[in-house]
Amino acid sequence: MMISRTVKFGAVVVALASIPSLAFAHTGAGETSGFIHGFGHPISDLDHILAMVMVGVFAAQLGGRALWLVPATFVLVMAFGGALGVMGVPVPFVETGIALSVVVLGAVVALGVKAPVAVAMGLVGLFAVFHGHAHGAEMPDDAGGLAYAAGFMLATALLHVAGIAASLLIGKAGAHGGQVVARSVGGVVVMAGVGLLSGLL
What we know:
The chain has eight helices and no strands. It is an all-alpha fold.
């Protein structure tokens, strides 16, 4: 049942995020290029990948409404952060905030934190501003803005779905075994985040 819900959630997210890209796919090189650049940005940096996957794992660990509310909150707030980046509105400590998101989200997974859904949404929303700002600030000048946003939103949503799916598959190993694996992965992500903060990665 849980895997079925995850598949349905993933399909809805992909469909919704694809609407803008489909609308702009045939209107010019700027829009097409924008979508490609936007999609590539979240999956080209280790910090973005680790944080996005951890959001999905965190949502799966919480279960229930958090399974879709937590990732959806991240994507929507990230879009807001992206708009700030495109408009040149400064957000302090963006790179530090992104690296901290890897550490904190990894720690949340490693410790198996069972936060209330609202708290989880607030936490991921805070970090989403930094990730979104970085995406928006690095948008190429010749890219179509909406198509670029659709690209990075879709890539982010897919990374969330990957985290959720991985967590559910790990959980099939059994309650105890699955928790050990998930927490170990979270611990590795924390170490990677510390490496990003210190400039070693």
